């Protein structure tokens, strides 16, 4: 799937408690010309509609959408997982929604997103795990790295809830440990193929 590509074709981001602060710094700083799809899974209350698109739509240069089942994964777009559905990357590439049981007490689960995206994109994937209060995402980040993708973790000192990035750091040595202000510049550089 990756033949000849110089940079990642997709970016997957996961987080929970405290991650909105990092997203608020990072997503508006991503350039309009970023030729990659960005897929975001956050732990959300199941019984309430998500406000993430409303929060970010007018702050970002990229298009912002709530993910729909079977929707093509298009570059230049940020897709947010809807509440109470697992969000997966499928062949195509496209997005898929699932009502399989929660993982780490969470649906959507970050592990589900990261592992499915790694299967489709392999080395053309960058994954970033943000602040959160449980271990969701650590195993998925390990799969991304094993499949040749780039694994990034928010620096625990900058996380409102450091348990999630700390769980990843206990499991793997990520390619990058980042403060929020470093995230968008690095993602842009990775896409341009300037760093690895």
TrEMBL record:
SUPFAM superfamilies in UniProt: Methylesterase CheB, C-terminal domain
Keyword annotations of the record: Chemotaxis, Hydrolase
GO MF term list: phosphorelay response regulator activity; protein-glutamate methylesterase activity
Protein's GO biological process: chemotaxis
Catalytic activity: [protein]-L-glutamate 5-O-methyl ester + H2O = L-glutamyl-[protein] + methanol + H(+)
CDD domains assigned to the protein according to its UniProt record, in alphabetical order: CheB (cd16433)
Keyword Transmembrane helix attached: no
InterPro entries the record matches: CheB_C (IPR035909), Sig_transdc_resp-reg_Me-estase (IPR000673)
Source organism, top-level taxon: Bacteria
The enzyme's E.C. designation: 3.1.1.61
PANTHER family: PROTEIN-GLUTAMATE METHYLESTERASE/PROTEIN-GLUTAMINE GLUTAMINASE, PROTEIN-GLUTAMATE METHYLESTERASE_PROTEIN-GLUTAMINE GLUTAMINASE
Protein name (database record): protein-glutamate methylesterase
Organism: Pulveribacter suum
């Amino acid at each position: 799937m990756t033949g000849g590509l110089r940079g990642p074709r997709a970016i997957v981001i996961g987080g929970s408690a405290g991650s909105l602060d990092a997203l608020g710094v990072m997503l508006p700083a991503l350039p309009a010309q970023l030729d990659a799809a960005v897929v975001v899974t956050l732990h959300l209350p199941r019984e309430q509609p998500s406000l993430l698109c409303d929060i970010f739509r007018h702050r970002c240069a990229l298009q912002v959408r709530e993910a729909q089942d079977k929707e093509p994964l298009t570059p230049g777009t940020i897709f947010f997982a809807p509440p109470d559905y697992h969000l997966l990357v499928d062949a195509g590439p496209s997005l898929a929604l699932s009502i399989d049981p929660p993982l780490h007490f969470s649906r959507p689960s970050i592990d589900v997103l990261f592992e499915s995206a790694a299967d489709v994109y392999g080395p053309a994937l960058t994954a970033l795990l943000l602040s959160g209060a449980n271990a969701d995402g650590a195993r998925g980040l390990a799969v991304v790295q094993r499949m040749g993708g780039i694994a990034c973790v928010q620096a625990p000192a900058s996380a409102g809830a450091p348990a999630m990035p700390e769980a990843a750091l206990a499991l793997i040595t990520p390619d990058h440990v980042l403060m929020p202000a470093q995230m968008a510049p690095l993602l842009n550089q990775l896409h341009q193929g300037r760093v690895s």
